Amino acid sequence: MPRNRCQVRGHKSNAMQVLYRRDVQYFTAFTILFMAGVIETLLGGRLADYLGHLRVLLIGFVALTPPLLPILISVRNGGTATVLLVPIGLALFSIYSPMVVMGQKYLPNRIGLASGVTLGVAVVIGGVALPLLGWIADHHGIRTALMRIVFLPLLDAGLTLTLPDPKILLKQG
Fold this sequence. Notes:
CATH topology: Growth Hormone, Chain: A
Helix content: over 70%
Order of helices and strands: EEHHHHHHHH
Structural class: mainly alpha
Strand order of the largest sheet: 1-2
Distance between the termini: 61 Å
Largest sheet: 2 strands, antiparallel
Radius of gyration: 20 Å
Strand content: under 5%
């Protein structure tokens, strides 16, 4: 049995596992992050319809860096870090719906391909970069590894500015 857990047993049919406070904090943090993601996924599509897909992508990428910086630079309190997960989740998940729809607009005759490429490329790039980040974390610490990626959303925002508007492409095509 793992060291950070203990087990309380009543009757054989009534055994339950009691988690230490540390595990509860991890589960709470993930719940907050993904609940913010659920809310923003639902709102992100509506925002993209109202503001435009490119604007929502740009806003999402730019909004992701400010809440990441305090966590990596100075936050030592788990409560503060947990509160910062709300804006991180909102910004992080706001880009998925508009990104998939934009891919489908760029390839209107290949909607399935566009969806697969849009999300698949992101997963593959993450899978390729992860071992490198792990090596950096092993040799230089987790903060150093995470500081290497905290500004990537700003790079993504810059790349987003180079994308043509899908509405213009549809009119030309």
